[in-house]
Design brief:
The chain is α/β, with parallel strands linked by helices and 343 residues long. It contains eleven helices and twelve strands. Strand 8, helix 6 and strand 9 form a beta-alpha-beta unit. The structure holds nicotinamide-adenine-dinucleotide (NAD).
């Protein structure tokens, strides 16, 4: 008999584009296992611009401040102009310094079997601090575009420590520090320096190694199995985690969590996919895997394991897959198949 009540207040942001379709699917599956989340639904992104002319309404921020926990669909960010990325604003508002992006093989028979690695990306600093400007040059008032980045010693230390702590708690054996300290000597140099200091403290418990980001990117393709936990600065982490997602079936299968001591926001790595929005063909698994991470975060390993095995069983049998996974199923078909496999 199911006895759980909806006891954990949780902010739910359906998001833009395919967001509402995949959120509906995920909520349906969470309901099917009687997950303990009491949803507080709020809007953000273009949906909020259209409704209240504000991409991040105060009610949404207040709700996350209160619950400290959110499941968020993808949000559209205008390219090159318009409002600042809501994802970046949320990270800054709640100091969500650690972005955790696990990658593991779910679809059997692909090019990369048995991948199981985690990328820890620093989420607040680097080039995402958005210190940008233009200055006149060559007779053009905006002839040169400038983009500044920074890292702080404190944050470098904290993100690498997060990666090592994660390794210890999750029985991971090795952390790889990824940088470009040969060229970006100050910013990446400081990250590497702090990384090495932190690694010393975990000596004998977790191994450490180092890679320059370009070599890491190549090795992720030639021999991804050598990596266990990768920790790196903001921009490199963003790029490498999409690359890693590509090894195991693409963005439709890549979840992520943004974590601080104030809040944890779980989301898919992918965006709002405007090209397929409203067609009912989006893959809900990335957001579902994010919800599985959220269940583990609140200590419900039992429910997380149930959903994980339903995903494995549906995807392994191969009969019900969405287009991005080489199938023809709709979001609703996949949702129904997953619900059927929940035991
Ligand atoms: P995207 O991730 O939305 O789409 C890239 C490609 O992957 C598209 O062809 C899309 O159809 C496909 N795809 C993505 N998710 C899928 C899914 N669940 N099922 C099937 N196919 C899927 O990237 P983009 O097109 O560069 O960005 C679109 C918008 O999303 C932009 O406004 C961008 O700023 C925003 N974005 C938001 C987030 C976020 O909210 N966390 C992350 C990345 C991009």
């Amino acid at each position: 008999m199911m006895t759980d009540s909806k006891s954990i207040p949780t902010t739910l942001i359906p998001g833009d584009g395919i967001g509402p379709e995949i959120t509906e699917s995920v909520v349906e599956i969470l309901d099917a296992v009687n997950a303990p989340f009491a949803w507080e639904r709020h809007i953000a992104g273009m949906a909020a611009v259209d409704a209240v002319n504000n991409p991040l309404p105060k009610d949404t921020i207040d709700s996350i401040r209160k619950t400290g926990l959110a499941l968020k669909g993808p949000l559209t960010t205008p390219v090159g102009g318009g409002f600042k990325s809501i994802n970046v604003t949320l990270r800054q508002e709640f100091g969500l310094y650690a972005n955790l992006r696990p990658t593991r093989t779910i679809i059997p028979g692909g090019r990369y079997e048995d991948i199981n690695l985690v990328i820890v990306r620093e989420n607040l600093e680097g080039y995402y601090a958005a210190m940008e400007n233009t200055i006149p040059a060559d007779g053009d008032p905006k002839g040169i575009a400038l983009s500044g980045g920074y890292v702080s010693r404190k944050e470098c230390n904290r993100i690498v420590r997060f990666a090592f702590d994660y390794a210890v708690k999750n029985n991971r054996k090795k952390v790889t520090l990824v940088h470009k300290a040969n060229i970006i000597k100050q910013m990446c140099g400081m990250f590497l320096e702090e990384g090495r200091k932190v690694a010393e403290e975990y000596k004998g418990r977790v191994a450490v190694d180092e890679r320059i980001v370009d070599a890491c990117s190549m090795q992720l393709v030639t021999n991804p199995w050598q990596f266990d936990v990768i920790v790196t600065t903001n921009l490199f982490g963003d790029i490498l985690s999409d690359q890693a997602a590509g090894l195991v079936g693409g963005l439709g299968l890549a979840p992520g969590a943004n974590i601080s001591d104030k809040a944890a926001v779980f989301e898919a790595v992918h965006g709002s996919a405007p090209d397929i929005a409203g067609k009912g063909i989006a893959n809900p698994l990335a957001l579902l895997l994010a919800a599985v991470m959220m269940l583990r975060h609140v200590g419900r390993q039992d429910l997380a394991d149930r959903i994980d095995s339903a995903i494995s069983s549906v995807i392994t049998s191969g009969e019900v897959r969405t287009g991005d996974m080489g199938g023809k199923a709709s979001t609703k078909d996949l949702t129904a198949a997953l619900k059927q496999k929940l035991v």
